[in-house]
Structures are given as structure tokens and as C-alpha cells.
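Handout, section B. The chain below has 357 residues.
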Amino acid sequence: MKLLVTGGAGFIGSAVVLDLIARAGVSVVNVDKLTYAANLRSLDAVAHLPNYAFEQADIGDAAAMVDIFERHTPDAVMHLAAESHVDRSIDGPAAFVQTNIVGTSVLLDCAHRYWSGLDEEKRQGFRFLHISTDEVFGDLDADEPAFTEETRYAPSSPDSASKASSDHLVRAWYRTYGFPRPDHQLLEQLRATAFPGKLVPLMIINAISGKPLPVYGDGSNIRDWLYVEDHARALINVVMRGRVGETYMIGGKSECRNIDLVRAICAELEVQAPQKPTGVANYADLITFVTDRPGHDRRYAVDIAKIERELGWAPRDSLQSGLGKTVGWFLDNRQWWEDILNGTYKLERLGLAVGAK
């Protein structure tokens, strides 16, 4: 089976690619524009393998995508490429509209044209998996039941609105053209190679650097956390075994207030990195409350009963074990995230020999 993965050099995408490549009889075509959050170093272990190919391309470039489909003839598409940072969407929503809405429409059109030209057997087996976000449903009060596959859309940021729009496009292609798609909504992720601007990596990096740990508002916003390797397993289950036309919620059953998550990171660092930066007595002393972001959603949670029941998937890692692995990875791989922070890895994409700054 050959899968075309968009955004495969990103945080979730790289985990998906690594999982797929390790499976017998599977090959991967990784299509990534290589924007700020992508890093091919996450895929160094598979870059030389014959069942892996990389194409640097924008999903919004129709000519490039048509060429990629024709040359690689995939059996399925896993569409992860997206702009996905709420704060960045507030500062610059146009990029989110361009990638998440326009880009998805171009990709759908190219994939549909390719699918239409396949023979009947291949057309029946083809899948298009669209990865969305639980943020398209807005937020929940503390006592409300979790989001389900039937929850009404109510996005509250440019990020989530653009993702909701892409969801509607994928559903429209299915209803109008019969174009095969399972899709899913996801939760917050835990993994070592998350982009350093995200909450968990930012807290780890700032703490071991002796910098403040900024927490929005009073830290009472609640998220459900899932270790990304569990997420990758779930996505692969859905694309290979999910029912066409269905949506599957994927979550970790690990709801936690942001402030409690940051305190848990500090506690893990006390164990794994007891030698602190100069002037820091306890990592938790670095916690600093900052002005809340506009329209900050209160709580996310999803009900994963459907994927548990139909596909037999459940998370293997708890919040605690996922945090432990994530903290340990950042402590052992300083060069990886330091190169991202100082821009070295971006210059290396251009083939430049650059020393550490």
C-alpha cells in the first residue's frame, strides 16, 4: 500500500510517516511545503529507505500536485498539512484561509481527478483521510458532555474556522462526487518533537533555560492530551480500516487544566533535571500568568467510544507517561530544538553550511 501524506514533515505528520514506514508492505510519499513548523530532521531515520519519498510542494499548487499523483500513484491520501496555531491565526488569518481552505480545495480537486481515472478495483480501495481538530466545535463548560461525531460546529478563532471550512469541503466532495473519505477530529498532542512554540515544548525549554513559564489567564482552560504516537496509530487504523464517509473522534481520556499540566511538567523536570539554572530554586517558581488570548476556548474533550468500538483503538500512553517521554527527549536532544530556535535548520533546507549561533 502506498500512502501520500501531506504535511509529513510536521509534528503529527512525522509520527505518522515513521509508523507507516515501519510496517511491512507500506510505502510513503511525504508532501510538505516546509513552512516554519516542518523539520525533515524528524525523518532522518527513514530518509534513505526505498519505501520513502519526499516531495517539497504546496498543496495549493495544482500543477505540482497533479504531477505528484501521476508519478507516485498512491492508494490513499492522509491530509495533515495545515496552518494550526491559534495565536498565529489571530495575528495573520489570511495564511490560514489560503492553506486550510484554498489548499484543501485544490488537493481535493487533484485527488478526485486522479481517483476518477483509476480502474474500478483501485477506485473502490482508495481512501482520502482528512485530519481536522476538535476546535471546530468551539468549547465546553466544565460539566458539559464531551464532543461527539454529531456535535454542531461553532468555531471561535480564525484557525478553527478555517479548519471547519476544510471539513465542509471534504464532506461536500463526498456527497457530490462520491469521493471516498473517512475523517476525524483530534486533541492536543504530546510528543518529543512538537514545535517549540507549542505549550508543552515551550514550557520545557523555558524551564531548563531559567525563563518565565507564561500561562494564559488563570490557567483554568482544560485540554485533553494524547501522546502523538498513539494518535499516529489511530490515524493509520482509520485510513486502513475506517468506514467510508464516517468521522472518528480521537482523544486521550486525559483532561487537564493548563496550569496543572505546567505544574506536572515542572514536577517531571525536578526528577529528570534536578540541576537547575542559576537562580532557580524550583521550576514551578518560573510560572507567570499573562493576559489571556482573545476568544480563548475554555475546554475541549471528545468522546472516543466510536473508534474504540469500531476499530478497537485506545491510547496506550497516559498523560504522565507521555509527559515523561517528552521531557526526557527534550533533555537528550538540545541540538534539535536549539537549531529550530536559532533558525539553523531553515538555512540548511537551502543547502547552506551553517554553524550554531
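Note. The radius of gyration is 20 Å. Compare this with the example in section A.
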